[in-house]
């Protein structure tokens, strides 16, 4: 009987066995972290590093536990650089990174040296659109092109087309939301499969006797698609105003909804309101995370890899001690 028990103890030392002592049957199976199978005692097991990074970014492949609640799992470098995207962190109880989110419309953002406003997660201005069509050396044209040409309502300057196909004049105040004008004309990069026409208009400024060049592009797309040569929606057109459907409208009219306030301040001044109108707090230690207010003593999280290893070690030695007690009973 002792020989059986010795074999059983050896099995325990090998971390997996099914053995018996008299009428007592002992099943001991230790999980193997990294085999891609979630076993007893594991929160997750994503297997290879490539699979973990792609499909289970919030699973710690070394300990097979959920990653801590402040682990960064997504950061869109381009959008985040302009200040409109929001980083996502693991929630401590899931293998998945939370859904991609961004600041609600209306937050100030900067693209280079130009201040604008976040719209649908992007920071848009006339310069970035000029770069898209004419290359990085191109910049937005001077005010004259927008104020005068777009109010004419012809192929050179307009605010889109009417239902009958005629060009729509931009009313005063909407000029910056009509046809896009840039100051350079290198090789154009139109959308593939489209036809385009480049219009270059040069004027002489009577006051300064200098040339004024306004370069625009007409891109024809199939169907009723909007002309990409028009200024993008969300582009800043005035203080606290952006372009929507070739009109310059105030931010308050397009985004009246806000996140919860504390003392009249959105998210208590301790967080950012996202596109779902939920506060994303600066850190996780607020007792009232809905409003990013109140302090709590500690941050609740998941078991660390060290704690998880200690858990397995405790189970292991408990099994050994149990068998030794049976041996000398």
TrEMBL record:
Residues 1-22 form the signal peptide. InterPro entries: ADAM_Cys-rich (IPR006586), Disintegrin_dom (IPR001762), Disintegrin_dom_sf (IPR036436). SMART domains: ACR, DISIN. Keywords: Signal. Residues 30-105 form the Disintegrin domain. Pfam families: ADAM_CR (PF08516). This is Disintegrin domain-containing protein. It comes from Oopsacas minuta.
